[in-house]
Design brief:
Pfam families: Pirin, Pirin_C. Keywords: Iron, Metal-binding. This is Pirin. The structure is a single chain. By secondary structure, the chain is mainly β. About 5% of the residues lie in helices and about 45% in strands. Strand 2 and strand 3 (about 40-50) form a beta hairpin. The longest helix is centred in the C-terminal third of the chain and has 12 residues, at about 295-305. The two termini are about 25 Å apart.
Length: about 325
């Protein structure tokens, strides 16, 4: 997992412990991921939405894209539309190539993040690199769908290309964990992602036996997804393993812990931490469209069919 790292974690700025009066968030539930196929048939592990875990406001979907591809096996998501939300793609292993009808896009490599605001509507594709298709290899990445508030659903589409070295790299207060802050705030530190909906998104690597306690905005939801390895959630140390999601209750701090022995590729407990300000707005969704009313969904389908969400650039009609 070549996600951006450092040779000496102790040289990084440290995240100050939560305030003494910050209540620890209890664990509400731990759920397993559902394994399914997306796009042209690439495998994902989906902690939500599933029959046991619905969307967690302001988030709509979380997929862990992970596979060990043989040559000619790698697949992506050919041209398709979106409206009304943002897609965040964070890669840890492998390469994706992205194009969109707004002129955005580029190559997403190990440690990079692509942040696409669909807003009023956009067409895009996400494909594995030619080298990955030809040679095969290990691929691991996260895609998160973030809902947009009603006032921003008609915003102009926007694309952010956040290279791995531009993430905010931090150390836990005791030096036992590396935290890559992608967006939002942890204490006095901020990530580079620009968001319409206030959220916090980070990837933490915990050394075996380490415990990580972070200050967390009391007004935000809070979750931890185990990308790889074994550990526990909360001060109550609820066991969690690879591909499980911990959802936390109210409070001002979040705690996760790594098991003493790790058996994953990195030898650490790899965790995605995420939460955001609930929008508390009605959600109407149909496939790649997320709006507030059924009438808006019908309009989205009609607009897409009429070509009002953009056109595929001529140079990419073949998906290249």
């Amino acid at each position: 997992m070549p996600a951006v790292t450092v040779s000496d974690i102790l040289v990084l700025p440290r995240i100050a412990p939560p305030a003494p009066d910050a209540a620890a968030r209890p664990v509400d539930q731990i759920t397993d991921s559902q394994r399914t196929l997306e796009g042209a048939g690439f495998p994902v592990r989906r902690p939500f939405p599933t029959p046991r875990a619905s969307q967690v406001d302001p988030f709509l979907l979380l997929d862990h894209m992970v596979a060990a591809y043989e040559p000619q096996e790698a697949k992506g998501a050919p041209w398709h539309p979106h409206r009304g939300f943002e897609t965040v793609t964070y890669l840890m292993d492998g390469t994706f190539v992205h194009h969109d009808s707004n002129g955005g896009g580029g190559v997403i490599n190990d440690g990079d993040t692509q942040w696409m605001t669909a807003g009023s509507g956009i067409l895009h594709d996400e494909l594995p690199s030619e080298e990955l298709v030809m040679k095969g290899g290990y691929f691991s990445g996260i895609q998160l769908w973030v809902n947009l508030p009603k006032a921003a659903k008609w915003a102009k589409p926007r694309y952010q290309d956040i290279k791995g070295p531009n993430l905010t790299l931090l150390s836990s207060s005791d030096g036992g964990s590396l935290v890559r802050l992608i967006a939002g705030d942890l204490g006095e530190h901020s990530g580079p992602g620009i968001t319409h909906t206030p959220i916090t998104l980070a990837h933490a690597s915990l050394s075996p036996g380490a415990q990580l306690t972070l200050p967390w905005n009391p007004g935000y939801s809070a979750m931890a997804f185990a990308i790889e390895g074994d550990g526990a959630a909360g001060l109550e140390r609820r066991p969690m393993k690879e591909s499980q999601l911990a959802t936390f209750g109210p409070g001002g701090s979040v705690t996760i812990s790594a098991a003493d022995k790790q058996h994953g590729r990195t030898g650490q407990f790899e965790v995605l931490l995420l939460g955001g300000l609930p929008l508390n707005e009605p959600v109407a969704r149909y496939g790649p469209f997320v709006m507030n009313t059924r009438a808006e969904i019908v309009q989205a389908v009609e607009d897409f069919q009429a070509g009002r969400m953009g056109t595929i650039p001529a140079t990419h009609l073949g998906g290249e």
